[in-house]
Amino acid sequence: MQHIVVTVNGVELADGEVAAHTTTLDWLRARGLTGAKEGCAEGECGACSVLVAAPDDDGGTAWTAVNACLLPVAALDGQEVVTAEGLGTPHAPHPVQAALAADGASQCGYCTPGFACSMAAEFYRPGRGDHAHHAPNGFDLHALSGNLCRCTGYRPIRDAASALGQPDADDPLAARRASPPPAPRPTRVDHDGERFVRPADLAETLGLLRDEPDATVVAGSTDWGVEVNLRGRRTPLTVAIEHLPELREVHVDESAIEVGAALSLAEVQRRLNGRVPLLDALFPQFASPLIRNRATLGGNLGTASPIGDAAPALLALEARLRLASVDGEREVDLAEYFTGYRQTVRRPDELIRSVRIPLPLANLAAFHKVAKRRYDDISSVAVGFAIDVGDDGTVVAARIGLGGVAATPIRARATEAALTGRPWELDTVRDAASVMGGEGTPMSDHRASAEYRALMLNRALLKLYRSTAREEVPA
Amino acid sequence: MSELAARPAGAVVGRRMPHESAVQHATGVATYTDDLAARRAGVLTAWPVQSEHAHARVRLDVAPALEVPGVVHVLTADDVPGVNDAGTKHDEPLFPDEARYHGHALAWVLGESAEAARRGAAAVRIEYEPLPSIVTIAEAIEAGSFQGFAPTVQRGDAASALATAPHVFEGESVVGGQEHFYLETHASLAHVDSEGQVFLDSSSQHPSETQEIVAHVLGVPSHRVTVQVLRLGGGFGGKEMQPHGLAAIAALGAVRTGRPVRLRLTRTQDLTMTGKRHPYHATWRAGFDDDGRLLALEATLTADGGWCLDLSEPVLGRALCHVDNAYWIPDVAVHGRIAKTNKTSQTAFRGFGGPQGMFVIEDILGRVAPQLGLDAATIRERNLYRPGQTTPYGQEVRHAERLHEIWQRLRTESAFDDRRAEIARFNAGSPDVKRGLAMTPVKFGISFTFTAYNQAGALVHVYKDGSVLVNHGGTELGQGLHTKMLQVAATALGVPFTAVRLAPTRTDKVPNTSATAASSGADLNGGAVKHACDQIRDRLAEVAAAHLGGDPGDIRFADGVVASSATERAMAFAELVETAYHERVQLFAAGFYRTEGLGWDPATMQGTPFKYFAYGAAAAEVEVDGFTGATRLRRVDIVHDVGDSLSPLVDLGQVEGAFMQGAGWLMLEELRWDETDGPGRGRLLTQSASTYKLPSFSELPDELNVHFLERAREDGAVYGSKAVGEPPFMLAFSVREAIRDAVAAFGPTGRSVELASPATPEATFWAIEAARAAGAPSTPADEPTSETTDAAASVTAGT
């Protein structure tokens, strides 16, 4: 057994009784820090949001809002956390708290501390103010799309966010950004027959996976948290890998872009900086910022859910996975990676190290997500498109990834064939759309009917075409 | 003007105040029931053992749970010293021997930690003897499975009127339920205090009833149970009846073990165990004249009441009383009944049947308008109540002229007619994406239809330093009741807002309180707080007159200063209070209020159940994606009647929040149950936040404008205000009708559009497919505005 030490609101809190499955939310609340609330325990409502000191891209600290309900507190060993109570007090509220309190942005108040943390993360985002399409003060309202409020209807929260200024010169959390976050450190927690281990390095990690094939690998733990909280999953060994430098690299050469599997989606988006338009189309539709601040490509592919949103995009990009084990590395085409419902070719001793996206990219890319709600929902159907249309208007190559229509994410091979070599025009698209409507084996469930899912495949191609050919208006 | 409605100079009511706890909310220090548990030592956690059958006789073996480390006790029927029932109708056994719905709590495990209690609950062995189950309204109708009363609201002879009406339409309307999804799930924390009293903190909207039921279960008099409500993380009606049994479990656990017991439902437990908004099914026949005026309506409304009666009867009563919404219908016969199904109980939810009743008439008007060749806004306007007319249950529609004033102002504020033309032009040039715009009105009756509930109490203390402490019987759910009560007390005593503090709601301070429900919190408790303050002020006025000169009637109280208009001498309120204390004048008072002028006969469904009506109207514009059916709210304009607002910022929040919650109900929120004959029959499929979607930022309209009706004093309510909690919920019908309008644009003119509810993207998509299948849009692209211009002209003529 080992103590964990977490710095909360500037105070070091040590604990030697932590269980591997203890969430940060429960741990904070048990210490009397009850500002963070449990609203759903699955990262949907954001009432538990807290700020974590995470690395930015320039060696400093980015205050990053995360769902405390999904994060094992053991993963924060040695790290820094700020809660709503740490942002400000009733006598000296933080600027975001003052803004929330002033003009009707809280009613019952239960969601408000979480909103304060999400809002503070955006408040401290460097470069805020550079985006013309955000609020006039540069506040990106998408930063709040992972927080639910049942009382206000959001308008006053939007207005509070839009009226925020910049941090004061003597703002301590703003100043904290200049120095790096705490370095990750090896962690070993053993309580009631459950272990949580953060290995020192990749070699130790791979050795552990070889020796203990039952280990559960977590990075952002956004899926782990749901399993632990909602389904009572308890595992003998949880191995945290999101700190491993080998899994946090972005590498670009002439033939490919290689993205580390343990970078959060938010980090991937920042680091790629618009280089992969299809991923830029995906990211804003992937869950919420609170999730994207922790969730990783490795995790989304590792759980192999048929409704994970990364796979359809990456299938369209013809991505390949680098799998690492003590025996060495191998590369797998993502299209051959999924073998069945939540089944893959990855062996228990293997770790997804990176995702390789071959270059050049197709010139027409889009990500369509059909869901009940525009923000923060799970796909009924997801479609990634990467289509190369030649100078003469002919489809040179078409790659289409689908989610939500089969036991695994799939490529729409028949549709791709129906498009390839034909002119990118309405007749082609109509023919191919009817093929696409028959791809996969959609099912009916509480999200959508099978018929709707099939028709959404059919319409997705027409919708894509219409977005590229605005001038044609058929009857 | 009544004394109740008159506002003194310098009134604190009417000022724009933030929520009294806003800064505590934002800084995370505002305390909710379960936050208390973290601060108390030795607290046990209660965890339910839930049925996995919709209907079955059950036998439990709890012994294996007791083997689980950390499990202290398993509560069963054997532990109940009093009555094994958690409801007011004696049909809700706290520990049932027959599971009546999937998720029904059968026993509760007490553990040293949530983890231990959860493992203990999983270890309990349950033998099920499955029984036939009824899961849908259709199955209940087929099987004749009903519960409670089956009332009728009737006026004139609807059958004869329908026989001679120039146009008669008939149809079915089905509307889904809704989960409250208060962000704070149900919570209770119980302990037995030094005097043997059971002290409960509970997230209850109805602490007095919680107290009564806990006392029944424990077999003790009510005076041995105190319920305290700090604040709720949202209620919306879901914590009116549902907290009682949960509080009783915590109390029973505390009595049985001698230790504090906390019970906080997880989201999934809350979704699978507690009551929701009733789904309704209606069949109807409606008659119209050639100008689109309603002549008669016959309808039968069937509510899905779930497994027990709960509040289904009063909810149904209110539904029947709101089928007319804001429209004059000469001949009416509306029947209601309550299906009994093997689902969660259905209960109070913002609007309390009003939304389901109004859904029927708004669905009818939206569907028949094209068939009558009229614009839907025209038909709605022509049917609005006029002064002197009465509702089908015999109550005069007082201030009906306000409906017309609101309607015209909304038309102007929203630039309705110009935008109709603009949208027609847009739609003519946009084959894949269509926009729609619609206006709908609201008329909502204010008062509990259960007349006895229209009373309230308050206890006001003035301390020697001039500070004021207010207790009242209402609970703070986020609706801003406490903010309003502080403003009422400050106004009545003429002191600054900051001189008054509100204490948490407690049954040992104000007894026999009514639920904080029916939008009545401010009306009733405001009347009681004002009454208490007025008594103290009158006593102080006598003291002041003796010291300042003049008669008590010359004494003015404002902003902490007490002045005599006779002598123009003044003193500080605190100084007066100190003086009054030394003169042995009582500085505290109990206040009481009851709503006058109500009379309701539930047997005949006739009378005056409401003190007054709240009015409003909304215009919503949507954009619908023809590829997916996804809807985006572009702009919403609202004009609403809150009387003379007690607290404009609070009221604005209520209007906006209720509107968005209504929009969620009608376009997004969908409860799906397993209706198959498989092993999961009756199970709620949407039992978490990832599957039950409420509005998020993406549903916020790009533009949202709310206007209050001006000079809108309500003579029958405290300081001329009106209730605001529920009425704006029903403004959201404008969204549903706008979606219908956009869907219609995909098909030929004059075609009736049927739209499922909620109008999810998939439901909207199927409606679009049906519209497209009926033929091409008939508006020629080369003259896109002509038709709309005609429609606008006829609308103008109709006014």
Automatic annotation (TrEMBL), chain A:
Residues 2-87 form the 2Fe-2S ferredoxin-type domain. The keyword Flavoprotein applies. InterPro entries: 2Fe-2S-bd, 2Fe-2S-bd_dom_sf, 2Fe-2S_ferredoxin-like_sf, 2Fe-2S_ferredoxin-type, 2Fe2S_fd_BS, Beta-grasp_dom_sf, CO_DH_flav_C, CO_DH_flav_C_dom_sf. It comes from the Bacteria. Coiled coil: none annotated. Residues 162-193 are annotated as: Disordered. Keywords: FAD, Flavoprotein, Iron, Metal-binding, Oxidoreductase. This is FAD binding domain-containing protein. It comes from Agromyces indicus. Residues 189-362 form the FAD-binding PCMH-type domain.
UniProtKB/TrEMBL annotation, chain B:
The keyword Iron does not apply. Residues 27-132 form the Aldehyde oxidase/xanthine dehydrogenase a/b hammerhead domain. Its EC number is 1.17.1.4. GO terms for molecular function: xanthine dehydrogenase activity. It comes from the Bacteria. The lineage of its organism: Bacteria, Bacillati, Actinomycetota, Actinomycetes, Micrococcales. This is Xanthine dehydrogenase molybdopterin binding subunit. Residues 772-799 are annotated as: Disordered. Pfam families: Ald_Xan_dh_C, MoCoBD_1, MoCoBD_2. It is an enzyme of class 1 (oxidoreductase). InterPro entries: Ald_Oxase/Xan_DH_a/b, Ald_Oxase/Xan_DH_a/b_sf, Ald_Oxase/xanthine_DH-like, AldOxase/xan_DH_MoCoBD1, AldOxase/xan_DH_MoCoBD2, AldOxase/xan_DH_Mopterin-bd_sf, Xanthine_DH_Mopterin-bd_su. Residues 786-799 have a biased composition (Polar residues). Coiled coil: none annotated. Keywords: Oxidoreductase. The gene is xdhB. Residues 772-781 have a biased composition (Low complexity). It comes from Agromyces indicus.
